[in-house]
Design a protein that fits this description.
Elements (H helix, E strand, L loop, with lengths): L1 H16 L3 E8 H6 L1 H13 L1 E8 L1 H10 L4 E4 L2 H9 L7 E13 L12 H11 L3 E3 L5 H12 L11 E3 L4 H11 L2 E5 H5 L7 E5 L6 E8 L10 H11 L2 H8 L2 E2 L2 E2 L2 E2 L4
Parallel strand pairs: 1-2, 1-3, 5-6, 5-7
Antiparallel strand pairs: 3-9, 4-7, 4-8, 4-9, 4-12, 10-11
Amino acid sequence: MKRLILAAAATAALATAGLAEEMKMAVTTSFHNSGLAEVLLPEIKKDLDLDVHLLVVGTGQAIRLGEAGDVDAILVHSKNAEEAFLAAGHGTHRREIMYNDFVFIGPKEDAASIADAEDAAEALKRIANAEASFVSRGDDSGTHKKELNLWASAGLNTEAFGPWYRAVGAGMGAALNTASGMDGYIMSDRASWLNFGNKGGLALLFAGDPVLFNQYAFIPVNPQMHSHVKDGLATRLEEWLVSDKAKMLINTYMINGEALFVFNAEQ
């Protein structure tokens, strides 16, 4: 009886303490590496009394976590994969939140001369023709999927490349570190590059082609597939992510005076 009384008292104490509700969201390494989460999460906690626990993985793994019902929502950036996720019934809907762009990073001396390329396809062809060291994420992330699509659009098959093409199977930060260490080329999202502290001899060499547009979208996991997911909390989070406050925080998040994301959610 004494144990029951103590347990009841402990439960009451926890309730009185007003512990925040919790949910899990899978997010991309590029989003996490940008530093934006460190801005948004404390405000979400303050406004919603909601602790959002992030599982930081590539888009492919984030989608697999959603399919397994291991998270309540995902925030990813690969539209084709997202639409397949929805078509299979794993998500309830897709809500676009913000965007930035992909950029090509490389050694400042730019031996492959990509800085003056006409478009992304030409930049990649120049890297391949020069057989200049190139680091690929190689991890089924949204960035990796986009990179492979761009090589294919340029008429190039990565499976036929020589040792100059190195797939590292790692997140954006680790891949950038590898590129910095070997003085190689790499495709990165702009936010991760701006927030990357180990630039070494690397520089942003090519950007601006419309095909490098990089959209991030929020997808709640379908509770009809996984009854335990916290769809109510995912809805509250989504409402906050498309709010005026989120818009202000996203649009004013800058590094060295340069914005990392542009809010474009329909409110």
